[in-house]
Write a structure and sequence with these properties.
The chain contains one helix and 24 strands. It is mainly beta and 259 residues long.
């Protein structure tokens, strides 16, 4: 009987214990870019240089520039057939295809009700997630009908970062990390303990704090440090099980391993 109790205690502990995450170095490459946006499953590389968005794939390069809209604020490539480029100073979003040809140009200054947009990310079908500073709400906006399909309750904190896929949207604010589903319902809410950037891959969260990366598996609320050598982390992102870190000069490739 006592032996059975120990077995139960062991499995109970194992089910909640953290799984250590380490990063195994693969290689590094020299890279000249102001920002690297993504490397997708097809090894297409998305960069910004001199306010021009570029895709490099199979030794071919496609470029997009729109000087009339000023500086690019953010680019989301989750759906490579409907890439969204956000220009905050002009309150506008441009949707591009996989050759960086314009599909739709959305000027929120001309739409009613007026929305002051601070963050943009990909949604499903013909939608994008937008954060409306006027109402402090996250909206799922259909850019074909120019209508909001759903919106969340107001978020009373400054928005630091935002990430989404077809089914969920994550907000990193000064106070909390929020996760919403595609109908705007809150899935979970965690305190932000100093994180300044957020990425998501297969539902797992990757967070940056003071030049160190952290990991939260989708099945737990525990956040743990990823074991890495000391690097300047200017940017990072994750594609499948590969972690990319850009220090402004080199792009480092690491394989993520859970022990």
């Amino acid at each position: 009987m006592q032996f059975i109790k120990y077995i139960i205690l062991f499995y109970s502990f194992s089910s909640v214990a953290q799984i250590p995450v380490t990063a195994k170095f693969i290689n590094k490459e020299e890279l000249k870019a102001e920002l690297i946006i993504d490397i997708d499953n097809f090894n297409s590389e998305y960069h910004i240089y001199n306010n021009t968005l570029s895709i490099q794939k199979n030794n071919k390069t496609h470029n997009y520039s729109n000087i009339q809209l000023g500086e690019i604020t953010s680019v989301n490539t989750y759906n490579s057939l409907k890439i969204n480029v956000f220009y905050k100073n002009f309150n506008s979003v441009v949707i591009l295809d996989n050759r960086l040809t314009e599909i739709v140009n959305i000027n929120f200054n001309t739409l009613q009700p007026f929305r002051d947009i601070t963050n943009v990310s990909t949604g499903y079908d013909n939608t994008i997630w937008i954060f409306n500073q006027n109402t402090q709400q996250l909206e799922l906006f259909d850019y074909i009908t120019n209508k909001t399909k759903t919106k969340t309750l107001p978020v009373n904190s400054n928005i630091i970062d935002m990430y989404s896929n077809y089914n969920y949207c994550w907000l990193l604010t000064g106070s909390f990390i929020y996760a919403y589903n595609y109908i705007g319902s809150l899935i979970y809410k965690l305190p932000n303990n100093g994180y300044t950037s957020l990425k998501v891959n297969h539902g797992n969260l990757y967070l940056l704090k003071k030049n160190q990366l952290f990991f939260k598996a989708k099945s737990t609320s525990e956040i743990q440090e990823i074991k890495l050598p000391k690097l300047l982390i200017k940017q990072f992102f994750v594609t499948n099980e590969t972690l990319y870190i850009y220090d402004g000069e080199f792009l480092y490739h690491y394989q993520l391993i859970t022990n």
